Amino acid sequence: MLFITGLILSVFSMHLMTFEILKQPLIKTKKEGAHAQAAISYTISPVHTVDTYVKLAKDMESMGADSICIKDMSGLLKPYSAYELVGALKKGCQCPN
Q: What percent of the chain has a predicted confidence (pLDDT) above 90?
């Protein structure tokens, strides 16, 4: 968590296998009055579909995420795929993306 000079932001990202671990840090961050941002780590595989990412974002949202971002550390997310994914996230989630 980062709490310095007025910036109160916590960013959490977990891969699909350890998703439940994300719940407690989100709860604690919200309790402290900070902005809890959850991050989706983008990758390409048969199990990582747009629908999978939307479900993941909805789960993060239900756990208390104030916003959701997409991390693409490997540069795999191409413009058309990003357009499709962000559009689906905006339709499927209530919190800012």
A: 35
Residue 35: domain span: 7-92
CA distance 77 to 95: 22
In the chain, which residues have pLDDT < 50? 1-7, 9, 17
- Residue 67's H or E segment, with its range, is strand 67-71
List the one residue out of 45, 55, 49 whose CA is nearest residue 19: 55
- What DSSP state is assigned to residue 95? S
Taking a C-beta distance cutoff of 8 angstroms, is the pair 97, 90 a contact? yes
- pLDDT tens column, 27-47: 888 888 888 888 888 989 998
CB atoms within 10 A of CB 94: 9
Number of domains the chain contains = 1
Is there a domain that residue 44 lies in?
A: yes
Whether pTM exceeds 0.85: no
Tally: H helices and E strands in the chain: 3, 4
